[in-house]
Design a protein that fits this description.
The protein is built from seven helices and no strands. With 149 residues, the chain is mainly alpha-helical. Helix 3 runs antiparallel to helix 4, helix 3 packs parallel to helix 6 and helix 5 packs across helix 6.
């Protein structure tokens, strides 16, 4: 793989700088590209950090709400019968559908981004938590009740 990458860089250098076969606007020399890459590296890391903060915020918010609600819904059968149809309808909707509504209704890009990430993570966590609670063997629950006494 490294040899292939090295070969591509050599061919790129030859065709763009030495032979001038490639258009310099479309294929600048590798040296120019690498210099630009390293000069823009701090900005890229700043953007990466901001994106990770948004992702972590939305995911932790979804995790902190979906797990307790999933445990409660999985533990109480009446609540599960009420919630299950809504989860089956709303859960499969892709989070990208919510982007225009989030942008229109929420006050900032940050809150809209966190909301879309939250919705994308909430339903799978919620549904899988319910299934996890429902699949606990009854003997294990009885053993835990005996130990809790």
């Amino acid at each position: 793989m490294l040899a292939f990458l090295f070969l591509v860089l050599i061919l790129w250098q030859l065709f763009s700088a030495n032979f001038r076969i490639l258009n310099k606007m479309l294929f600048p020399e590798p040296e120019i590209v690498l210099n630009m890459f390293f000069s823009e590296l701090p900005d890229m890391f700043k953007g990466l950090l901001n994106s990770l903060i948004l992702l972590l915020s939305g995911y932790l918010l979804a995790l902190s709400t979906a797990v307790p609600l999933g445990v409660i819904a999985g533990w109480h059968s009446r609540l599960l019968r009420f919630v299950n149809p809504y989860a089956k309808i709303i859960g499969p909707i892709p989070p990208l559908v919510y982007i225009p509504y989030a942008i229109a209704l929420l006050p900032s890009f940050r809150s809209a981004s966190i909301f879309v990430i939250f919705v994308g993570a909430f339903w799978p966590i919620f549904i899988n938590t319910i299934h996890g609670v429902l699949n606990i063997p009854p003997k294990l629950i009885d053993s835990a009740r005996v130990l809790a006494i």
